[in-house]
Amino acid sequence: MSRLGNPLVYDLLDVAESLARQSGRMNLRKASMRRAVSSAYYAVFHAFCFVCASVIVGWKRSAELESVYRMLDHGQIRKRLTSPEAAQIAPDVARIGATFTVLQERRHLADYSSPALPVSRNETLAILARAHEAVEALESLGDDQRRKLAVLLITKARLS
Fold first, then answer.
1. pTM for the full predicted model
2. 12, 67, 105, 150: which has the highest count of C-beta atoms within 10 A?
3. Is there a contact between 93 and 81 (Cβ–Cβ < 8 Å)?
4. Mean pLDDT taken over the chain
C-alpha cells in the first residue's frame, strides 16, 4: 500500500499518538487527549485535501496546488462522503465517510466543550485507530477512484 505524498497527514497522526499517551497531571492528560482527537481529525482532512490537489493539479505543481488544496469545506465533505454517490465510488469510500463523520463530531466535542467533558484514553486511542484506518483506506483507492472522489468533494452540486 502506497503512502499518500503529504507528510503532514502522517505527522499529525504521530502527534495525535504522542498526545494520547501524555502522562502527568490529570488536566494535562485531558487537554492532550482532546488535542489528540483534533489532530486525528485534521490528519484525515488533510488526506482529503491531498487527494483532491494531487488529482486535480498534481502534487509537484505548487503554484496551483494551494487554491485546490484549500477548496474543501468541512461540512460539505461530510455531506458528500455520506451521500449515495460516495458509496458508488467504492465501498471503502462509504466507510471513510462514516469514519469522517465520527471524527468530525468528536473533534467538535474536543475543541468546543467545556473542561468538564469526560475524556478517556481508551476512547481517544479508538478514535486514533479509526483515523489511521481512514488514511489507509484512502491510500488503497485506485487512481480512478481517487479522481471520482476528488470530483465529488470539490465540485458544486447542481440542482436538476
1. 0.91
2. 12
3. yes
4. 89
